[in-house]
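#help-structures
NK: newbie question, is this the right format to request a structure? protein is Lipoprotein
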Amino acid sequence: MKRLNLIALAGLGLLLASCGASPSAAPDGGRPPLPTGVEVRFPAAPTNAYLSLLTEDGKSVYQLSVPAGATSIEVDPARWQAEAKNAQDVTLLLPAGIVDGSLKGSIGDAMARFLRWAMWQDSNANGVRDDGETLDLMTHDRVAYASQPFTAIFKTTTPDMQQTWKLAGGWSRAEHYVYLPGGNKTYIRSLESAGVQRYTLHVDTPITSQ
């Protein structure tokens, strides 16, 4: 009986050793990459397409190649976390044309950062996003960072719009939503942190698009 037990234990040891050795033979250790849950969707991508995350002044902070024909791609939020250091006072990010005295809410000393998605086609295959290569695709949603939760409520004259920005602390997708109440000329717009981290690129539209 003791001999059988020793054989069984030896066999188990070999099995465990074999299982432990298998993953190390694979380049990634045998572990598939974990899904990030953050995704960008778009019309079928052309050849040599790239997706870039840009600052409002057009500087790329994250970029990845998109397979031809793809209509969505998962992105890695860890790749743009460092942009939090470039956050600015929320009042500096508010649009021009705010009606005097209309700004209210709970801003405090919150700092924020907004980034936007763009897709482009490397027509000359030089690996650089040149003039004329950016595709006519965009989203009014933003990749957003806030140093703390805040709410900014204000009205703008151009366009005639009542806006509410409400962001959670940390990184989130700031979802754009707008509508025009019946018989009214003032649009109602919100830019608010959403739970679903999914961005959808579409043909360029004005901020008043519903």
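mod (FA): yep, format's fine, and the tokens are attached above. The longest helix spans residues 2-25.
NK: thank you!
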